[in-house]
Design goal:
This protein has 251 residues and is of the alpha/beta class. It is 20% helix and 18% strand. Strand 2, helix 1 and strand 3 form a beta-alpha-beta unit.
């Protein structure tokens, strides 16, 4: 099995920990939507019903860093912590950034300034939608978005010669404890990690949150390192996620 280490610190302080450079950086960055975090979600109301009035989550942000996340600082860290592109093909590193829909364009625009010249949009299709309270909407969102960024050479790609479509099904995670409002499912993370890394490779999550990325990487025999600045999430990730058994996952 792999190993996972989570630091209760900001990723900008990475030099203090002397962690190795990564084959894959995967992160779910703060969406910078502030007080609109639960805007169209039933959780805005008591019991999920607007007839009951607003809940304690109404007008609240997901967490205390969800209004001032700096994409440029994040990209600077990532370009420093990805391994160099090897000369041989099929070995280059990459990064996957889960983000709010409009953040994709900011990431794509700024990434070339940090040497990340190419991108692939990723869409994850859910079979449900949280946007059920906007009664004036005939079309509701049921997708999550990410951007795959890389320098010039195509990244390492393990899929037995088969194509991977950039629109994937969002696999629900019914077994991992839910400790974070934007927690990503472990089976989905395992799939991404196994496609873009080999066993023993390093995976870094600069915005670790619940620690599910680190846990998924550990299950798949990778070395994982993450940063989480919020002490409560850091503690919960260690106590409830990273302490889970690490028998082989689905992939």
């Amino acid at each position: 099995m792999g190993e996972a280490t989570l630091y209760n610190d900001h990723f900008q302080n990475y030099k203090s920990y002397q962690i190795p450079k990564a084959q894959l950086i995967i992160a779910d960055i703060p969406y910078n939507i502030g007080e609109d975090a639960y805007g169209s979600n039933p959780m805005w109301y008591e019991g999920g019903d607007n007839k009951n009035g607003e809940s304690k989550l109404a007008g609240k942000q997901f967490f205390n860093t969800d209004n001032d996340f700096r994409v440029s600082e994040f990209l600077h860290f990532c370009t420093k912590m990805l391994i160099k592109e090897p000369k041989e093909p099929g070995k280059a590193p990459c990064m996957i950034v889960f983000c709010e829909f409009e953040q994709q364009f900011e990431l794509i625009q700024k990434a070339p300034k940090y040497g990340l010249n190419r991108y692939i949009n990723l869409v994850f299709r859910k079979n449900y939608s949280a946007q059920v309270l906007k009664s004036n909407m005939c079309v509701v969102g049921n997708c999550e978005y990410a951007v795959l960024l890389y320098r010039d050479k195509l990244p390492k790609f393990n899929n037995d010669g088969r194509m991977v479509m950039n629109c994937m099904d969002w696999v629900r995670d019914s077994t991992t404890p839910k400790i974070h409002p934007t927690q990503k499912p472990v089976p989905l993370l395992e799939r991404l990690i196994t496609i873009f890394t080999d066993k023993g490779d390093v995976v870094i999550d600069p915005c670790a949150g619940s620690g599910t990325t680190l846990y998924a990487a550990k299950k798949q025999g990778r070395r994982a390192y993450g940063f989480e600045i919020d002490k409560s999430f850091y503690q919960a990730a260690n106590d409830k996620i990273l302490s889970l058994p690490t028998q082989r996952g689905l992939f």
